């Protein structure tokens, strides 16, 4: 079972907007060295919405080849077309990823029954481990806990990334989940509390810029050390907040540029961080001792 700090990895891009594979390789190597427990590739933070299908799959393949079996990779393969989700998931599983992460179909606004049938169809076509991903603030669709628990009875649907930010709701899901089905936080600000309540890790934006601290906080929480985990997490609280002053991944890409890890380049319709927020994000980095 994958657990711990699971970085929602950015996709570095060169000044011309093309994927910067040299920078991506350096990021992957850095996370391995810093103790990140899992790489989540080509998800929301990886700008999957503006990667074409070939790029999307190549980013997944590249990262999987880079780390081999040393660090598990979860590939973002969700789509608002069930056929496309099956295609992406089938190809990613062929690369040998540990699991695939499938966001709820965005824009279409399916019913709860539509959500159930969507995931059921992907699970039937793609036998590897699948993780649900609920982030209603971005998708305009909210998968209920009841629907999640229906899906949890399908053998290869093994978990969920709960990015609702509603701690009470996440805890209820942890308590109700059947054996073998795990809950991951997708909200850095509440992640440690959810892990202390029984979740198995955090799919984290903050881990992009503070991987060692995020790994330590998750390890302590998984060990049941509430005081220790919260003490480490307190150093990250400004990052948890300020990496969302504009739409993710705009602030975290700019923060990584300040660390010399990659360019701040975004693909339209996203734009680089407004200068009025530069001081805010830089201050958060200093609080976490990511920069001096």
UniProtKB/TrEMBL annotation:
<feature type="site" description="L-lysine inhibitor binding">
    <location>
        <position position="80"/>
    </location>
</feature>
<feature type="active site" description="Proton donor/acceptor">
    <location>
        <position position="133"/>
    </location>
</feature>
<comment type="function">
    <text>Catalyzes the condensation of (S)-aspartate-beta-semialdehyde [(S)-ASA] and pyruvate to 4-hydroxy-tetrahydrodipicolinate (HTPA).</text>
</comment>
<feature type="active site" description="Schiff-base intermediate with substrate">
    <location>
        <position position="161"/>
    </location>
</feature>
<dbReference type="InterPro" id="IPR002220">
    <property type="entry name" value="DapA-like"/>
</dbReference>
<dbReference type="Pfam" id="PF00701">
    <property type="entry name" value="DHDPS"/>
</dbReference>
<feature type="site" description="L-lysine inhibitor binding">
    <location>
        <position position="106"/>
    </location>
</feature>
<keyword id="KW-0704">Schiff base</keyword>
<keyword id="KW-0220">Diaminopimelate biosynthesis</keyword>
<dbReference type="InterPro" id="IPR005263">
    <property type="entry name" value="DapA"/>
</dbReference>
<feature type="site" description="L-lysine inhibitor binding; via carbonyl oxygen">
    <location>
        <position position="49"/>
    </location>
</feature>
<feature type="site" description="Part of a proton relay during catalysis">
    <location>
        <position position="44"/>
    </location>
</feature>
<dbReference type="InterPro" id="IPR020625">
    <property type="entry name" value="Schiff_base-form_aldolases_AS"/>
</dbReference>
<dbReference type="GO" id="GO:0019877">
    <property type="term" value="P:diaminopimelate biosynthetic process"/>
</dbReference>
<feature type="site" description="Part of a proton relay during catalysis">
    <location>
        <position position="107"/>
    </location>
</feature>
<comment type="similarity">
    <text>Belongs to the DapA family.</text>
</comment>
<comment type="subunit">
    <text>Homotetramer; dimer of dimers.</text>
</comment>
<feature type="binding site">
    <location>
        <position position="203"/>
    </location>
    <ligand>
        <name>pyruvate</name>
    </ligand>
</feature>
<protein>
    <recommendedName>
        <fullName>4-hydroxy-tetrahydrodipicolinate synthase</fullName>
        <ecNumber>4.3.3.7</ecNumber>
    </recommendedName>
</protein>
<keyword id="KW-0456">Lyase</keyword>
<keyword id="KW-0457">Lysine biosynthesis</keyword>
<dbReference type="GO" id="GO:0009089">
    <property type="term" value="P:lysine biosynthetic process via diaminopimelate"/>
</dbReference>
<feature type="binding site">
    <location>
        <position position="45"/>
    </location>
    <ligand>
        <name>pyruvate</name>
    </ligand>
</feature>
<dbReference type="InterPro" id="IPR013785">
    <property type="entry name" value="Aldolase_TIM"/>
</dbReference>
<keyword id="KW-0963">Cytoplasm</keyword>
<keyword id="KW-0028">Amino-acid biosynthesis</keyword>
<feature type="site" description="L-lysine inhibitor binding">
    <location>
        <position position="84"/>
    </location>
</feature>
<dbReference type="GO" id="GO:0005829">
    <property type="term" value="C:cytosol"/>
</dbReference>
<comment type="pathway">
    <text>Amino-acid biosynthesis; L-lysine biosynthesis via DAP pathway; (S)-tetrahydrodipicolinate from L-aspartate: step 3/4.</text>
</comment>
<dbReference type="GO" id="GO:0008840">
    <property type="term" value="F:4-hydroxy-tetrahydrodipicolinate synthase activity"/>
</dbReference>
């Amino acid at each position: 079972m994958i657990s711990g700090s699971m970085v929602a990895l950015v996709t570095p891009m060169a000044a011309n907007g093309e994927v910067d594979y040299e920078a991506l390789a350096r990021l992957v190597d850095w996370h391995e060295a810093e103790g990140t427990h899992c790489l989540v590739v080509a998800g929301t933070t990886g700008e999957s919405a503006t990667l074409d299908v070939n790029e999307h799959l190549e980013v997944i393949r590249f990262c999987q080849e880079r780390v081999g079996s040393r660090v598990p990779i979860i590939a973002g393969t969700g789509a608002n077309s069930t056929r496309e989700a099956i295609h992406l998931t089938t190809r990613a599983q062929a690369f040998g990823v540990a699991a695939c992460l499938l966001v709820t179909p965005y824009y279409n606004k399916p019913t709860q029954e539509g959500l159930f049938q969507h995931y059921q169809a992907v699970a039937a076509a793609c036998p590897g481990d699948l993780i649900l991903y609920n982030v209603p603030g971005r998708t305009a669709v909210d998968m209920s806990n009841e629907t999640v628990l229906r899906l949890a009875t399908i053998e290869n649907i093994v978990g969920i990334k709960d990015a609702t930010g509603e701690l009470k709701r996440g805890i209820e899901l942890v308590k109700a989940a059947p054996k073998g089905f795990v809950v991951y936080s997708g909200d850095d600000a509440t992640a440690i509390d959810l892990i202390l309540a029984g979740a198995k890790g955090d799919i984290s934006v903050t881990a992009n810029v503070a991987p060692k601290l995020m790994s330590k906080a998750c390890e302590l929480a998984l060990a049941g050390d509430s005081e220790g985990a919260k003490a480490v997490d307190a150093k990250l609280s400004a990052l948890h907040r300020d990496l969302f002053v504009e739409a993710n991944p705009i602030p975290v890409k700019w923060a990584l540029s300040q660390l010399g890890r990659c360019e701040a380049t975004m693909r339209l319709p996203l734009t680089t961080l407004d200068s009025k927020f530069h001081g805010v994000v830089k201050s958060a980095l200093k609080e976490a001792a990511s920069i001096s």
